[in-house]
Amino acid sequence: MRTGRRADGRTGRPAITLLATALLAGLPACATKGMVRDLGTQVAVLRTQQARADSARAAELGRVIALQQRILDSLGASREALRQVRTEFGQEFLAIQQQLVQVQELTGQSQARLAELKRGLDDRSDAQFVPDTARMAAGPDSTAPVPVPTPEQLLQTARSEALRGSHGAARAGYREFMRLYPTRPEMADALYGLAETFPEAPDSALGYYREVYEKHRSSARAPTALYKTGLVLERRRDRAGARAAYQRIVQQYPRSNEVELARGRLAALQP
Q: Is residue 62 part of a domain?
């Protein structure tokens, strides 16, 4: 019974000690020394198992802490690598932009020359389509003098050919009008009509539109040519050039039919 009293007075011991104390308290007073030794052996085994379990938990906790540290180190390295990539990408993007600006400057310098060459090729390729309305009216075998076609005949013939989709013949008609009647007030109409015969060659069309609004600013065709210029530049993704053309309509031709269309396109092109 004295053993039981000692057990009752020792509070706060580990679970194994308490268990051993409880077992000792439950032994009869007549317990032999062998029984006590067996009990001591069991307590020692329990303590060994508990120590192993504690060691295993400590080792597992150490592995978890080490893994967490490796993850943190990896995240830090990834952030640094990402920062370097962003810096390098920003530098490369800036270099690409600078190269694009240089290419655009070179392209702008060569566009006028390219348009001039294209127009020369168009002139040579369309020479075979030169219309001669007076000769056709007189007949192929007529020996009578061939009168020069009137401006109205040339323009009407060129417009008819354009409506039929015969752009080569239409261009030849407009150019013949420009050659024979360079001072006629219909010159702006001829230039505009000539520009309209280049649906697949925007550079050539832009050149003739420019002649309309630069050389014949008081013509009713000038704001129309400017509006068509803006549309062509939009298709070429030249938003700044298109806005300049539309703004010119608003400023110089506020009473034209194209002014509201130009304002609409300016609103659509706002950055």
A: yes
Same domain membership, residue 185 and residue 141: yes
Better pLDDT: 87 or 150: 150
pLDDT band, residue 180 (cuts 50/70/90): very high
Domain match, 257 and 176 both: yes
Residue type, 227: Y
Number of domains within the chain: 2
The residue type found at 250 is V
Percent of residues, the chain, with pLDDT higher than 70: 69
Q: Which residues contact 25 (CB under 8 A, 6 or more apart)?
A: 3, 4, 7
C-alpha span between 117 and 102 (Å, rounded): 23
The rounded distance, in Å, linking the Cα atoms of 170 and 202 is: 17
Task: Report how far residue 211's alpha carbon sits from residue 193's, in angstroms, rounded to the nearest whole number.
Answer: 12
CB hemisphere CA count around 54 (13 angstroms): 6
Higher pLDDT, 55 or 183: 183
In a domain, 199, yes or no: yes
Angle between the 187-196 and 167-180 helix axes, to the nearest 10 degrees? 160
DSSP 3-state percent helix, strand, coil across the chain (nearest 5): 80, 0, 20
Token couple for 186: 């219909």
Do 167 and 241 fall within a single domain? Answer: yes
Which range of residues forms the domain containing residue 194?
128-268
The span from the CA of 158 to the CA of 131, in Å, is 8
